[in-house]
Specification:
Layout lengths: L1 H45 L2 H7 E8 L5 E2 L1 H9 L7 E12 L4 E12 L8 E14 L3 E11 L6
Parallel strand pairs: 1-6
Antiparallel strand pairs: 1-2, 3-4, 4-5, 5-6
Protein name: Nuclear transport factor 2 family protein
Keywords: Signal
InterPro entries: DUF4440, NTF2-like_dom_sf
Length: 157
């Protein structure tokens, strides 16, 4: 009986410490992923292909707000060819949740994308809600493996 009581007491002290260690890993990972999300948006605007090659996983599934899907090669090529052009990307909301001891992250947020004006001269602005899944590769670091976005109605004042 004394052994059982001792084990239960020990568990009461050990389990919170384990949970705290896991939560701190997840919290650190969430901060890291948030910074990387902002860096990736900046790389898309600046056409920084070295960053894009690094942050997109080889098995990327990139689903645009119109439903069109690209893999990593196709998406980066669309930027090179001028099919995907970003003048500016404003991050309005960003929420990162990390799991699995900081090895997996789910991101959701709201962004506004500014693209070159339409042929008639009107602004080309898209308000998007999006979801991203990132995984941490031991050799390559954080990589986006899934992007899904949905257009939001324009906010009129």
């Amino acid at each position: 009986m004394k052994k059982l009581s001792f084990l239960l007491t020990l568990l009461l002290f050990v389990l919170p410490a384990i949970t705290f260690a896991q939560n701190s890993k997840d919290a650190a990972a969430a901060k890291e992923v948030e910074a990387l999300e902002r860096k990736r948006f900046e790389a898309q605007v600046k056409k920084d292909y070295a960053v894009l090659e690094k942050v997109f996983g080889e098995d990327l599934v990139y689903t645009h707000s119109n439903g069109k899907q690209n893999n990593k090669t196709e998406y980066i090529q669309s930027i090179r060819e001028g099919k995907s052009v970003y003048d500016k990307i404003d991050v309005e909301a960003l929420n990162v949740r990390a799991y699995n001891d900081g090895k997996t992250a789910v991101v959701n947020g709201t962004i506004t994308i500014y693209q070159p004006n339409k042929p008639d001269g009107t602004p080309n602005v898209a308000h998007l809600k999006y979801v991203v899944v990132q995984v941490k590769d031991p050799k390559k670091g954080w990589q986006v493996v899934l992007w899904q976005s949905q257009k939001q109605p324009e906010v009129k004042s």
